[in-house]
Structures are given as C-alpha cells and as structure tokens.
Protein: Fumarate reductase iron-sulfur subunit
Amino acid sequence: MATPTLEKAGTAAQDASPYITVTFRIRRFNPEVSAEATWQDFEVEIDPKERVLDGLHKIKWDLDGTLTFRRSCAHGICGSDAMRINGRNRLACKTLIKDINPAKPITVEPIKGLTVLKDLVVDMEPFFQAYRDVMPFLITKGNEPTRERLQSAEDRERFDDTTKCILCAACTSSCPVFWNDGQYFGPAAIVNAHRFIFDSRDEAGEQRLEILNDKDGVWRCRTTFNCTDACPRGIEVTKAIQEVKRALITRRF
Ligand code: SF4
Ligand code: F3S
Ligand code: FES
Structure:
C-alpha cells in the first residue's frame, strides 16, 4: 500500500521550520473489511515538540478519516487515549514526539488484553466491570450527617496517591496476568478499591477486601511492576496492591 504523506506548504522561511518528517506505523483493524489486523505507515510533517496525539489528528483530519481512536481532553485528564506507543503503554496526549526517537517509525497499537473493536479502540467494558465490582464510592452506615465528615490531614494522606487515577487502563492492559485470561480484577480496580479501603470515613473496607480475596483478586498479582511503569499519573500501583494484600492478612487498614 502506498504511504500517504502530509507535507506543510513550502515557503522561503521553511528552512527555519522546526518540522520534521515522521513515520507513524499504525495497527489498523476494521472487522467489516477483514478479520486480520495490518500495519499501515503514514508520513507526517510534525514539530518534535508536538505530541503523538497531534500526529494522529493530522492523519485523521488530512490523510485518512477512517483512522479510529479515542481522545477527549487532550491534556492527560480524561484517560481515554491510552495506547501502545513503541511497545509501551502511554497516553498519546502526554507523549512528545521528541521523547520517542522520531528518527525511527513510531509504532502505535491498541492496548493489550481487551478486544479490539476498530483500529486503536478497544472494548473497555471488562475493565469498567472490574472497577464497578469493587464499589468505587464512599459507603457509610447510619443517618445522613448534618455536616461534612471530618478527616485529619494524615488520614487523607493515607490514600492520596490512589485518588489520582484517571481510569485510563494503561496499568491493567500492561499486566501479563490480565493478558493471560482477562479474569484478573487488574491493577486499576485494586487501586480504586485501595482509595476507599484506606479512607477513614468509609465503612465498607471489609467488604471490598473480601471481593478482592477472590481467586481472580489481589493474590493473582505477581509483582511484575509493569503497571507502575505504565501509569501516566505516577501512581505507585504495585505498592497499593501490596498494601491491599497486607490489609487482607492483618485486617488492619
Ligand atoms: Fe491509568 Fe494509573 Fe489509574 Fe491505572 S492506576 S488506570 S495506569 S491512572
Ligand atoms: Fe500485574 Fe502490576 Fe501485579 S503488572 S502482576 S498487577 S505488579
Ligand atoms: Fe484525555 Fe489523553 S485525551 S487523557
């Protein structure tokens, strides 16, 4: 297949242009066309200070409108554009071209372990089902309070790291245990359980621990740290999983 090319209009000032030509090698899949996924190259003129998401936009808007991927905020907040870039899970909107050796083709694939629906879009439902299963909301007993529920700064600090999750699935889809059969709850669900288990205001920690004591719960984690390496929010994912394991053994949280 001929490589589509996108070039900036030439001008006398072009010599000073920061633009370089980068090859995006993208995993394409359209179940309405073929049961097989294929690689397709696109050449794009891009400023190395731009992001992989900008390159994908240039391709979609100017070269091939059928290219399909998710994105929303474009600023690392919504978690919708996690993908495998040069073999590593990252957010396309937070990955600068200059940081990933643009001299070589940049490979872009869907995240692993979830069914690919089209191009870079995967079915996130199993991921969100595991999230729902850990009851990711504050559970309390008794009457509605008439004022805010107070918490010390130290108690708030206890689960601060796991509040940062944006549910991008970069962790779960980088976990070899999850790749194996997709039944493991996965690190993201455990991170979000941790956020409530260690919240001093919450009263359903025991319930959540029991949910994660399941054969597909925390004990399947093999401490491989892929999840921690993949997290675009810098959450210490493996540490959070270890803390949940410890809480299950000691019943202290
Ligand atoms: Fe994404 Fe990190 Fe949350 Fe996992 S823990 S879903 S990698 S933000
Ligand atoms: Fe998987 Fe992370 Fe454990 S990659 S095996 S959940 S440390
Ligand atoms: Fe929202 Fe990248 S588009 S996190």
User: Anything to note?
Assistant: The chain has two domains: 14-122, 125-141+151-250. The chain has a mean pLDDT of 94. The helical segments are 52-63, 125-133, 153-157, 176-181, 187-197, 205-212, 226-230, 237-250.
